[in-house]
Design a protein that fits this description.
Helix content is about 55%, strand content about 0%. It has two domains: about 55 residues; about 35 residues. By secondary structure, the protein is mostly helical. The longest helix is centred in the last third of the chain and has 27 residues. It has three helices and no strands. The radius of gyration is 24 Å and the shape is elongated.
Length: about 90
């Protein structure tokens, strides 16, 4: 069990069943694990609304956009510095 109370349950199934589960999940445009979890939850009456296995990297869209902009600025600064060094003969290709 993880610190947040999540647990993985390995289940052995026939290959044909796995293929069918993957096909059904793909038809619903969700992962196979999410499809199986949702079906199991529905069968036993368990609410998995809002459940996620993903830990968000950023707290908000604004934080994500700021981080993206910072990376782009750093990348642009590096390219400019390399181009300047090339032009002045400090580096060569």
């Amino acid at each position: 069990m993880t610190a947040d109370g999540k647990v993985t349950i390995p289940v052995t199934v026939p290959t044909e069943m796995k293929v069918q589960l993957e096909s059904l999940a793909k038809a619903e445009n969700i992962s196979t694990a999410a499809f199986i979890r949702n079906r199991l939850a529905g069968d036993i009456g368990f609410d998995v609304t809002g459940f996620t296995t993903r830990v968000p990297k950023y707290a908000s869209d604004e934080e994500r956009k700021a981080a993206t902009e910072k990376k782009q600025n750093e990348r642009n600064a590096l390219v400019k510095a390399l181009l300047e060094a090339y032009k002045t003969g400090k580096i060569s290709l």
